[in-house]
Amino acid sequence: MIPDKAPKEDVFHGSEDLKKEAHITSFENYKELYMKSIENPDEFWGDVAKDFFWKTKHTGQFLDYNFDVTKGEIFVKCMEGASTNISYNLLDRNVHERKLGDKVAFYWEGNEPGDELTVTYRELLQRVCQFANVLKSQGVKKGDRVSIYMPMVVELVVAMLACARIGAVHSIVRRSLPSSLFLPLIRSDGFYRGDKLINLKLLADEALQKCRDKGFPIEKCIMLKHLSKEAEETSLGSQSPPAKRSCPDLQQEKQTGRVKKTRPVPQVPWNPEVDLCWHALVRGASDECEPEWCGSEDPLFILYTSGSTGKPKGVLHTVSGYMLYTAATFKLVFDYQLDDVYWCTADIGWITGHSYITYGPLANGATSVLFEGLPTYPDVSRMWEIVDKYHVTKFYTAPTAIRLLMKYGSEPVQKYKRESLKVLGTVGEPINPEAWQWYYNVVGERRCPIVDTFWQTETGGHVLTPLPAATPMKPGSATFPFFGVVPAILNESGEELEGPSEGYLVFKQPWPGVMRTVYGNHQRFETTYFKKFPGYYVTGDGCRRDKDGYYWITGRIDDMLNVSGHLLSTAEVESALVEHEAVAEAAVVGRPHPVKGESLYCFVTLADGVTYNRTLEAELKKQVREKIGAIATPDYIQNAPALPKTRSGKIMRRVLRKIACDERDLGDISTLADSSVVEQLFQNRCCTAV
Ligand code: WTA
After folding, report:
1. Residue 501 has pLDDT above 90, yes or no
2. Of 34, 211, 390, 535, which is least surrounded by CB within 10 A?
3. C-alpha of residue 531 to centroid of ligand 1, in Å
4. Residues 620 and 519 reside in one and the same domain
5. Are residues 363 and 507 in the same domain?
6. 492 and 574 inside one domain
7. Nearest CA residue ID for atom 8, ligand 1
8. Which domain-ending residue is among 498, 521, 553?
9. Residue 96 is assigned to a structural domain of this protein
10. Among the ranges 174-188, 252-266, 562-576, which has the highest mean pLDDT value?
11. Which of 437, 446, 452, 440 is nearest to 482 (CA)?
12. How many domains does the chain have?
C-alpha cells in the first residue's frame, strides 16, 4: 500500500520550480490518482484514451484479463473492439489536429560532432507514408513480420512507423536473426560507433545465410546506404542511380561528405536477387498513405529480450494498450511539457528505445534528440556538449553510462553548463547509491529529480518509478508503482508479505501496456511469468520494501546468492565495491563452494589511472565486509578492464558465472556487444581465493 504521507527524513527532492508546471504536483495528488487508477481503471485509462483518435469505439470492458493459470488461459485485452492506427496518432494527429507540423520531432546527432539533421513532425509523416508505400509495393501486408537491422538513424524510426502504418509487425534485431520470422528485412550498410566501423550489411548477410540454412528464406532486403555513397558507385552499380537529393537524401549527402574525407566506408556485396536500395525505392513513392485501421489487440511489434538470461524470447506487444501506456508514462514520469527537449540515450533496438524514443515521445508531440554515437567519443564530455547544444530539459540514460562517466570525475561534466536540465532518469538495472549521488549532485547540481524507472521489455513501460514533482527520492529506490500497477512481494511459498519485507516482486493485475504473449509460444509465456505463483505476473526480480513503503529492486532472483544459508543480493555487494574510489564498475556472481554453497566471485573495473595490486584487493575485501557483513566477504576478486555487456549495456552475468567457474561452453552469446572481452577475462581468471 502507498503511505498517506511521504517521509520527510533521508529523502531528496528536485527544485521547487518544477512543481509550478508539473502534471502531478504532490505526493497526496499522486496517491489520490493512484487509488482511482486501481479502483476504477476503466475511468482512469478512458481519460487517457480521450486524447487519441479511434476509428471505431471499443465494446465491452476497457481492460479484460485472466492472471490465474488455475482458472484457464492467461490473457489481457485492452479496448477490445476499438480500431485505430498508432502512426496516425503519433503523426497525422499531431500535424493536423494539434498543429504541430512544424515542430521538431527529432534532432538527429551523428557519431561525428557536426553531423546533424532536423526532422519536423510534418517531414516525419511524409517519410513514414513514403516508406509505407514502399513496403506495400514490395508486397508487405497487415500482419506480416518485418525485421529491422539498422543503426540509430531517423530512418529506423521511419521504418518502424511505416510498418505500424500498414499494420505490419516490426521486430528490431541486433545480432542474430530469429529464424521463425520475416518476410522482408530492412537494414543499413553500417555505421560508426566512436572509431569503430560496424559493417551491418556483412553481419546481416551472415545471419541471413544461417536463416536460409535452417530453411527460413528471407524474401527481400531493403538496404539504407547510411555511410557509403562510394559503395553506391562501386558495388551497388546500376541498382542505385545518383539521387535527386530530397529530404531523406539530405542526411545522406551531409554524412557522406564528412565520411568521405575522414573514414573508410564499408564495401558491401550486393545480391540483386534479394537486395533493394532504400533511396531508390523511396524516390518514386508517394508521400501520402491511408493508414490501415488495426484492432486494439492486433500485434504492433515483437522484441526479443536480451540474452542475459538464456535463450531470447519474442515479447509481443499490441496496438492500443501499448500506445496508451507509453504515452501516459512518458508524459507523467518525465513530466513532459510542450517546450521540452527530451533525450533518451538508449538504443532503439532495446525496449527503452521503442517506448521512450519512438512511441511515448511522439505520441505526446515531443521534441527528442536522437544520438548515434557514444558517450566517450570524441571525448567524455560529449553528452554534456549535446545537452547544451540542444538545451535538453529531460535526460534519460542507464546506470552503466553514469558509472562509465563517473570514472573520469566531474571536470568533463562541468566544462558544460547543463542549465536547461530539469529531470534526469535511469533505467536498466539497480542504480547503486554512489552513482545516484554523482548523477544528482554533479550532473543535476541538486536541482533535478532523478526518476529511477524500474520496468522490463515485458511490462512495455515504467511500472515502479518516482514522479518528478511528487515523489521524494531515496537513492537506489525505484520508489512506488505507476498508475494502474499493483505490486506485491511474495515469499518462497507464494504468500503476500505486508510492511517491510523482502522477496519476489510480482504484479497482481495488468496495466494496458503489459506483454500479451511470447510470439509463437503462449505456453512459454504462461510458464515463464505465471506458473510459479498462480494469480500473479512474476517479474523475476527480487525486491525489498522499507518502512516507508518504498520498493528497492535487489536484482534478478537468479542473481541472488546463497552463502552459508544467507541470501545475498549481488547488487548490494557490487554497490559496496563501487563505493571504493578505485572502482568504476563491479559485477558479482556466485561460484560453487564445497562448504558455503556459493562463494562470491567479484569482477572489478578500476577507475582511470588506478592500478590493481594486493593492497587494493585487501581494501576492497574490507570495504564489503564493513558495509554488509562478514558473510559477504569476497572470495575472489578479478581485475576486469572491461565487462561483457549486451548492446543495451546490460552486464551478462550468465557469462561471468561461466568465467568464474572456468566453463568454456557459453551458450548463446549473440547479444554480446564485444566478444573479445570474454577471452581476456578467461585468460586472467583468479584460480585461488583472495
Ligand atoms: C532490470 C529494461 C533495477 C530488472 C527496461 C528488470 C532494473 C530488467 C531497473 C529488465 C531499475 C530495469 N532498477 N532494476 N530501475 N530497470 N531493471 O527487459 O532486473 O532489458 O527485470 O528492460 O532490468 O530488462 P529489460
Report:
1. yes
2. 535
3. 21
4. no
5. yes
6. no
7. 456
8. 553
9. no
10. 562-576
11. 452
12. 2
One DSSP character per residue, 435-503 reads HHHHIIIIISTTTS-EEEEB--GGGSS-SB---TTT--B-TT--BSBPTT--EEEE-TT-PBP-SSEEE
Q: Do the beta carbons of residue 320 and residue 84 sit within 8 Å?
A: yes
Which residue type is seen at 413? V
Residue nearest atom 15 in ligand 1 by C-alpha distance = 454
Q: CB under 6 Å to ligand 1: residues?
A: 305-306, 351-352, 427-430, 452-457, 478, 539-541, 553, 556, 648
Residue at 117 is within a domain: no
Query: Distance (Å, rounded) from C-alpha 425 to C-alpha 261?
Result: 37
Which 3-state string (H, E, C) describes 444-457?
Answer: CCCCCCEEEEECCH
Which of 87, 81, 47 lies closest to 61, judged by CA? 81
Domain that holds residue 677: 564-684
Residues 437, 388 share a domain: yes
- Type of residue at 501: S
Domain boundary among 490, 523, 553: 553
What is the reported pTM? 0.83
In the predicted structure, residue 440 carries a pLDDT above the cut 90: yes
**In Å, what is the CA distance from 600 to each residue of 192, 433, 561, 635?**
38, 21, 8, 5
Give the pLDDT confidence of 508-519 residue by residue, as tens digits. 999 999 999 999
Instruction: Please write the tens of the pLDDT for every residue from 618-649.
Output: 999 999 988 888 888 999 999 999 999 988 78
The residue contributing the CA closest to ligand 1 atom 25 is: 456
